[in-house]
Amino acid sequence: MKIQIFIIFTAVSLLLVSCKTKEQPEALAQLGRPDAVWDLINQKTYPSWNSMMEKYTTVCEFWTLKQSKNHVMMGSIDAWFYKYIAGIRLSEEAPAFKSFVIQPNLLKDLDHASGGTETIRGKVSSSWKTENGNFSLNVEIPFNTTADVFVPAAEKSAIFEGNQPAEKVKGIQSLGFENGFHHFRVGSGRYGFSCKKNSN
Q: What is the C-alpha to C-alpha distance for residues 165 and 78, in angstroms, rounded to an integer?
């Protein structure tokens, strides 16, 4: 698709005006290209967050480093970390974390991540790591809520919760496989999902 190719090209080179910095990473992730955003975040050359951090400990208003030297416009990338690395996102079908999504993305040279947020219903947290080809994901779901948890793995991989196959655990509903993720719906509680290297 021409539009998608254009967005990815401009993301890597970061040739967009400042007012679109917030929308660009979100759009790319929704198009299934969080890897392009990760390349953008780790870009060392100007214009980039990294080149900005070489001179300041705050985030500037413009990539040119002019005007305000402490401006939230460029700081919106931290929300992307929660939503697409830790994977904690609001559900479009349920307000105020009555139901929500946990869908971490595995990105180049990143072997672990964790994040959490306090909601009006309690704490939501996600913590994952990869080690020797094995993947583990620990999540915390507040009382009286549900979450759609997406575990990144090959389609034929066996997903466990604790020592049991995830689909056999009470309170976990397996909803199939889609776009590189095993989809589960869970109720309140703490869950530890895992996938071993040799399970696919």
A: 34
Answer with the residue of higher pLDDT: 150 or 66. 150
CA atoms of 41 and 61, how far apart (whole Å): 17
Instruction: Give the sign of the dihedral formed by CA 43, CA 44, CA 46, CA 47.
Output: positive
Q: How far apart are CA 172 and CA 150, in angstroms?
A: 12
Q: Domains of the chain: which residue ranges?
A: 2-81, 87-199
Q: What is the mean pLDDT of residues 131-152?
A: 96
C-alpha 171/C-alpha 108 separation (Å) is 33
Three-state DSSP state, 92 = coil
CATH number given to 87-199 = 2.60.420.10
For residue 11, name the pLDDT band (cuts at 50, 70, 90).
very low
Query: Above 80 in pLDDT, residue 19?
Result: no
pTM for the whole structure: 0.85
